[in-house]
Specification:
Heterodimer of DFFA and DFFB. Interacts with H1-1. Helix content is 42%, strand content 15%. It has helices at 29-40, 60-65, 84-94, 98-111, 115-128, 141-144, and strands at 9-15, 22-26, 48-51, 70-75.
């Protein structure tokens, strides 16, 4: 099945953990997987594509509804992607300035009018707090309630 307009659909694809995006045009998901695996040198067997933004797995039906130039991530069999938060989490895990980035994200939360961006940043900050060492109700009231 062809894209909405009956021709190749242009998308932007990247590999897991990669910063570079590549433009690919494909008539269907099968062709996108083949071209993407060839470009990123991944095995085709078990490969899949998901949305960069939220990690939704792209099916053939979903592919046909994607807007042109959607950002996608090509994953090999063993890789998983949970969306842009995964990308931010990787950055924070490797960056020596993680605390400054967290503070900047908190600042964006208070200034931003976009509810979608606030939701993503809130989820990120909530998932970044390491509370594994806390053991009592006094130390972590949220967990015990």
């Amino acid at each position: 099945m062809f894209g909405v307009s009956g021709k190749n659909k242009p998308v932007k694809i990247r590999g897991f953990g990669g910063n570079l995006k590549y433009g690919i045009a494909a008539k269907d998901l099968k062709e996108l997987l083949k071209k993407g695996c060839n470009l990123l040198q991944l095995p085709l067997s078990g490969a899949r594509v998901c949305s960069y933004e939220d990690g939704t797995i792209v099916t053939e039906e979903f592919f046909s509804t994607l807007p042109d130039n959607s950002e996608l991530v090509l994953l090999s069999k063993q890789q998983t992607w949970t969306g842009v938060i995964c990308d931010i989490g990787q950055l924070l895990n490797t960056d020596r300035h993680a605390d400054a980035l967290i503070q900047a994200a908190k600042g964006l939360l208070s200034d931003e009018n976009s509810s979608k961006r606030r939701k993503i940043l809130s989820d990120l900050l909530q998932n970044l707090e390491d509370r594994s060492e806390l053991e009592s109700r006094e130390e972590d009231a949220d967990w015990f309630s």
